[in-house]
Specification:
Elements lengths: L1 H69 L10 H29 L2 H14 L1 H10 L3 H16 L8 H4 L10 H7 L7 E4 L3 E4 H13 L8 H17 L4 H6 L5 H18 L1
Antiparallel strand pairs: 1-2
Length: 274
């Protein structure tokens, strides 16, 4: 009897021990599962947050780039808008019905290499203007590039007819004028102005033309007729290399004058910031 009672007690204690062990193991498994679930949830939420952050940042960047490229200038000083509209209409007729047809005929009969050689020659002799303006803006490396281009193209480029510095040495151009130099040093644009034939401009760039005139070697040709003819041919030859450019640029313009005005001001500000 005592032996049976002892066995019963042992079995009872063993059952209680198994139950306690089961409870303990279950609690540990549950805790482990909760821990794993918590880690997974945290990782999932972190990944989700990172994903939406990247998407938002990309959309913000795209919007910023879109705004930078297409937002129109908010403040263009244009007290001469009435005159500017009339002059823009005059220039439009001149470009569309006189300059473009003549330039197209010239482009048709003149081989592209000859046009390119003329363009390279005139670009090369305007080296002093680019050199001075790069120096005035503190762009000394660009000034050295322009000097190398001038020396190479003036010698092995046959007086600048061939752009050897660009083709074979990869030396870039750095176009700068006095209008850009004034803008670089913070001179405001002033009122927008449209000049006959020359087209869109502003007061700052008009003053810049005076500096460009004195920095151009062509300006020191003694005979006035020859000097004017050279400047006119330089402009005409460059225009004739793409005589349809004006037509392509303005074909979708709803209102021609503000379209050209805003495009000009945006482009000038971009060049100054480069």
């Amino acid at each position: 009897m005592k032996n049976n009672l002892s066995k019963f007690r042992d079995i009872r204690r063993f059952e209680i021990y198994k139950f306690k062990s089961y409870i303990e193991i279950k609690s540990q498994v549950t805790a482990f599962a909760d821990l794993k679930f918590g880690d997974l949830m945290r990782k999932f939420l972190l990944s989700l947050l990172l994903f939406f952050s990247c998407v938002f940042a990309e959309q913000t960047q795209e919007k910023s780039e879109f705004d930078d490229e297409f937002t129109q200038p908010s403040e263009i000083f244009d007290p001469l808008s009435g005159y500017n509209r009339v002059m823009t209409s005059f220039n439009d007729v001149f470009y569309s019905y006189i300059l473009t047809p003549v330039a197209s005929g010239y482009d048709y009969v003149m081989p592209d290499p000859i046009q390119g050689a003329f363009s390279n020659f005139f670009y090369n002799i305007l080296y002093p203007m680019r050199l001075v303006n790069n120096l005035l803006q503190g762009k000394f490396e660009n000034s050295w590039d322009e000097t190398k281009r001038f020396l190479i193209n003036s010698t092995i480029g046959f007086a600048g007819l061939n752009d050897m510095a660009g083709k074979y040495y990869g030396i870039p151009r750095h176009d700068e004028d006095f209008g850009q130099t004034l803008g670089y040093w913070g001179v405001p644009t002033g009122p927008h102005i449209v000049w006959p034939i020359l087209g869109q401009s502003n007061l700052r760039d008009t003053f810049g033309l005076v500096g460009d005139y004195f920095a151009s070697p062509v300006s020191y040709i003694q005979d006035g007729t020859t000097r004017t003819s050279v400047n006119a041919f330089m402009f005409f030859n460059d225009y004739s290399r793409d005589p349809k450019f004006y037509e392509k640029m303005t074909k979708d313009a709803v209102d021609l004058y503000p379209f050209l005005r805003d495009a000009y001001e945006q482009n000038r500000e971009k060049l100054i910031k480069e």
